[in-house]
Amino acid sequence: MIDAPSRLKTAYVFPGQGSQAVGMGADLYEESPAARQTFEEADDILGFSLSKLCFWGPEEDLTQTVNAQPAILAASVASLRALTEAHGGLSGGAPAFVAGHSLGEYTALVSVGTLGFADALRLVRERGRLMQYAGQVREGGMAAILGLDDSLVEQVCQQTGAEIANINSSGQIVISGAKDALVRAIDLARAMGARKAIPLGVSGAFHSSLMEPAVPGMVEALEKARMVKAAVPVVSNTGAVPLSHAWEIRTELAEQLVRCVQWSKSVDFMVKSGVGAFVEIGPGRVLTSLAKRIAPDAKAIAVNDLASVRAFAL
After folding, report:
1. Does 19 share its domain with 64?
2. pLDDT grade, residue 7 (50/70/90)?
């Protein structure tokens, strides 16, 4: 049985692109009416069988940015609804904060009622399309740098033209840039003592200035989407500060495309605000692992399948 502390403040966190895996959500679909309804809604909203793509792939289609983003959001919302269904509305009460890593910020907004599920799905489908387009117009990529602190990675970027895209934890940073800039940055990071410096299999230089072609279309899509004030503060990717009002959330979601994801600072902020337990809801365990690195004294629980939904204890 997984124990979730009753006297500690809790944060719900939601994973981003890269957490997708063929088969995600399939057992929840079979056993949870709430999860089944979520996937069926997603299929109807998008006009194709997203659920089949999640459950059976093929993997090369699932990993395409335009598909991966709505697929992860749907699987995460299905996990959240199954968890709520199984535990009577989560009797431990509302979380103190919610947050999501990049794409996961949209799932966080669904969880606190700022965005409806249908609007969120359409937005992330468009976000994925626009990011894929930007990656074709301004070609680039991303690389993970492990074992160098922020200041050294900043030096690498200043000397090569790359940009810091994600600060995930101390010594785990992702950079973005044009392909030639990334080659130089990887070589320099290794020369400066990085434990690892490896290119990532993504379709563009996400969270960098190379994503600028995606911004106008995203701003337009966000303006059309209905948003209301968040029931629980959402800790923003770009500023690591709590947001509640629709206007500031719209600004955050547009800026997020071209600015660094400050995940380490986001977790630090929540811990300093009294959070002692992080519940990652959605595919994979990336954020659970990061929480243990950033805040080793906090509890970290992953809820992503039928077994973890059933084992979750309040």
Report:
1. yes
2. low
> Token digits for 70?
């709505």
CB 254 within 8 A of CB 211: no
217 and 121 part of one domain: yes
The answer on 148 and 83 residing in a single domain is no
Domain with 169, as residue range(s), is 140-200
Look up the CATH number of the domain holding residue 156.
3.30.70.250
User: Encoding tokens for residue 50?
Assistant: 């997203």
Catalytic hit among 111, 176, 203, 207: 207
Query: Is 101 known to be catalytic?
Result: no
Active-site residue (options: 102, 111, 236, 308): 102
**Per-residue model confidence as pLDDT tens digits over 74-105:** 999 999 999 999 987 654 568 999 999 999 99
160/93 same-domain check: no
Burial 236-271 (b: 16+ CB within 10 A, else e): bbbbbebbeebebbbbbbbbbbbbbbbbbbbbebbb
Contact 215, 256 (CB under 8 A): no
**245 counts as catalytic:** no
Does the pLDDT of residue 160 top 70, yes or no?
yes
